[in-house]
Design brief:
The protein is an alpha+beta fold. Helices cover 33% and strands 19% of the residues. The protein is built from 15 helices and 20 strands. The chain binds zinc ion. The site of zinc ion (ZN) has 12 residues, from strand 1, helix 3 and helix 4. Zinc ion (ZN) binds next to strand 1, helix 3 and helix 4.
Length: 614
């Protein structure tokens, strides 16, 4: 079906082009775990091995990224959002006794600008069912479930509800899925959020003015909506799983190949854990990036698009997310993020690609980037992502290699999470009971072992490059694709959306030209990195950072080149997915009108400008 292939070899400059259409290998990324109460995302990797079936020689090099572990979706319809039950404290008690001078009170209940995200992401069109996702700061003395938020639209009350979720950044949130029907509502509206509207909370809420947020919401006419709307879900059954894709997306285009990769990846996870699934898994391939490329709760949600700027291989991502589902059988649903992510990275054999976890962890220690385990265990997602996942995975590998898989499985099953969500002490107790050693002793033994590994310069370059890349990628998300930024993202349960017939939440995303340019640059940087071209990757990463540092102006020649080609193609109505740059020429891979067919166009530098090659 695709006549042409190109291949990106380790040498980035080598490419083949066979015809006008290209099969693009896709990329998936990292995973996060959503848990029932306090969602903690976990990255996973996937390596896409989806190979074009057409030309035997063409090898697709998919780029995948790590994924997050979303809330555990159970079989039955479930409450929409993870409800944090962990750290909630009791309601405010009596005021301080008169004899003790009251401590100066700090106003802790407020809503900040920028704490609101809307879905579908990118742009709201008439006919959309809008989801509001608002983070609210609350005093330590108040239970989140006692903090109500009232929502008004144009002065008319829409709803009033208590906070009902918690994001991976540990902020309390109000999530109102698909709550406002915009049919017939094109135009500009004022949405007002008021925390504690009846002023029930006094202590810790001294300033009432910052309890309110007014947001101007523009609903564009349906006629302007060229994004995919009113699509349907397409389902394909394979052993152990049902694959769900949205019609008209890259995932539907590549569904047959995805089915093969998914089946093989699920089998790999089964083999790694020695566990057979006790139910059929739902696997959703979505066309927007969330977090590092995926998450898993009761089902798996994995990014599959043609411009997957999070990188990562799709097969690795699927293995990782499958482990997040399978391990619930071992842990009896009582796992903690550190161990769950560690097990997923260990069982996948790496986070974003096949990795030697021992050598990589040794490189981490040798470069001074190691973070003590207690810090990671108690604060997994906020810790630097790549470091947290690597240490967790390498630590699990150490336990398995040293004391055996059966012992580890027993330990994993024995672990009972602490009720306050801080598990370092609990981990210490469980290690002592099962292995006869404290966390400190085992960590020390492990570090000694890592210290004996000869430092590999390639490994160091790869590790440092990965950490830098993902830090830049997340910085891009926080600024330009905020609903994808893992600490603040809403990780929707796809069955809720499917039941409501909604798909835009899983396909739409910001598509300004700045998004296209930076996403293309990120995509190419990750491919360079993964293929071992560290120096070229560093140059490209530097260019991306420079644009972010300079109000999105591309001031160096490399960034200017990507920008120029994207804009030239945009003027033709083309959406660039990839740019394969080779000196004074470039091959641009693009789509038209949000359709998943890929085309290519050759550019060359002509004088001072880039133009379509004659
Ligand atoms: Zn994960």
């Amino acid at each position: 079906m695709w006549g042409i292939f190109y291949r990106l070899k380790h040498n980035y400059r080598t490419q083949w082009l066979a015809s006008t259409t290209v099969f693009l290998s896709l990329t998936l990324s990292g995973c996060s775990l959503l848990q029932e109460e306090a969602p903690t995302p976990v990255p996973i990797q996937a390596t896409s091995t989806v190979a074009p079936t057409v030309a035997p020689t063409a090898s697709l090099e998919p780029t995948l990224a790590p994924t997050l572990i979303p809330p555990t979706e159970t079989a039955e319809p479930v409450p929409v959002e993870p409800t944090p039950t962990a750290t909630v404290e009791t309601a405010p008690t009596d005021p301080p006794a008169p004899t003790t001078p009251p401590e100066p009170v700090q106003d802790a209940l407020f809503i900040e600008e920028g704490q609101l995200n809307l879905y579908p992401p990118g742009q709201i069109y008439e006919g959309d069912q809008v989801t509001f996702h608002l983070a609210v700061s609350i005093p330590d003395t108040v239970s989140f479930s006692n903090v109500a938020v009232r929502v008004d639209i144009d002065g008319e009350k829409l709803t009033e509800q208590a906070l009902n979720g918690r994001n991976l950044g540990r902020e309390y949130t109000l999530i109102l899925p698909l709550v406002w029907d915009t049919t017939g509502k094109a135009g500009t509206h004022t949405v007002t959020f008021t925390a504690d509207p009846n002023n029930l909370i006094q202590y810790g809420d001294e300033n009432l003015e910052n309890n309110r947020l007014d947001y101007e919401l523009v609903v564009r006419p349906a006629a302007e909506n060229f994004s995919r709307s009113n699509q349907s879900w397409v389902v394909k059954e394979i052993p152990y799983a049902r694959i769900h894709v949205v019609s008209g997306t890259a995932a539907e285009r590549d569904l047959e190949k995805l089915a093969i990769v998914t089946e093989a990846s699920i089998q790999k996870a089964i083999d790694a854990l020695g566990e057979e699934p006790r139910r059929i898994y739902d696997v959703y391939f979505i066309e927007r990036v969330i977090g590092q490329g995926g998450y898993a709760g009761g089902s798996m949600v994995i990014t599959y698009n043609d411009r997957n700027y999070t990188g990562g291989r799709i097969d690795e991502v699927i293995v990782h997310e499958t482990v997040h589902l399978l391990d619930q059988q071992i842990s009896n649903n009582s796992r903690i993020t550190f161990l769950a992510e560690g097990l997923a990275v260990y069982a996948s054999g790496g986070h974003y690609k096949p990795e030697d976890l021992n050598a990589r962890a040794a490189a981490l220690v040798a470069t001074g980037n190691y973070i003590p385990l207690t810090q990671i265990i108690d604060n997994f997602y906020p810790v630097q992502h790549e470091i947290g996942y690597l240490e967790a995975g390498a630590f699990v590998q150490y336990l398995v290699d040293t004391y055996g898989w059966d012992k580890f499985k027993e330990f994993y099953a024995d672990f009972q999470p602490a009720s306050d969500g801080f598990n370092a002490a609990r981990l210490n107790e469980t290690l002592l009971a099962d292995y006869g050693k404290t966390l400190e002793q085992i960590e020390q033994e492990w570090l000694t072992k890592l210290g004996e590994i000869t430092l590999d310069r390639e490994e160091v370059a790869d590790l440092n490059g990965s950490i830098r890349f993902y830090n830049i990628m997340r910085r891009y998300q926080a600024i330009h694709d905020p609903t994808a930024y893992f600490l603040e993202a809403w990780l929707p349960r796809p069955n809720l959306l499917r039941d409501r017939g909604a798909t835009a939440e899983l396909t739409r995303h910001p598509e300004q030209t700045i998004n296209l340019v930076l996403e293309v640059m990120l995509t190419e940087a990750e491919i360079l990195l993964r293929s071992g071209n560290f120096r070229q990757a560093e140059v490209l990463m530097g260019s991306i950072e420079r644009a972010l540092d300079n109000q999105n102006n591309f001031i160096d020649p490399l960034g200017a080149t990507y920008n120029e080609i994207v804009l030239e193609a945009y003027g033709r109505g083309y959406e660039i997915q990839r740019i394969l740059l080779d000196g004074q020429s470039a091959i641009a891979v693009y789509t038209i009108n949000n359709q998943p067919t890929l085309y290519t166009l050759e550019y060359s530098r002509q004088g001072a400008a880039w133009a379509v090659a004659q």
